[in-house]
């Protein structure tokens, strides 16, 4: 991790974890071949973050390597919930857990709309989906 991510106590700054989580979610979708379903240039719907929550378990420092592992936790009618585990690489010590909720919105109207069936099916096929 970059030194700029660390606070004056030598710990990763609390807010930086959100950037790690967002990057991990984007990689999860990209590596799963799902990015296109969320690209606003090619879809009639967009997704807005409704909720982002972090629970901290242990500090991480400049020399620590972290694993940030997302999964689909729930597919609702018009929302998607992702759970993201942040652990210390090597020993697996839990550092933080994140929950991120996206709401599906119709681009034309700006109103909440159901998650498209094709997106729902693609996400449900990923490991760890609880529905």
From TrEMBL:
GO molecular function: fatty acyl-CoA hydrolase activity
Keyword GTP-binding appears in the UniProt entry: no
Swiss-Prot/TrEMBL keywords: Hydrolase, Plasmid
Homology family: Belongs to the 4-hydroxybenzoyl-CoA thioesterase family.
Name by which UniProt lists this protein: Thioesterase protein
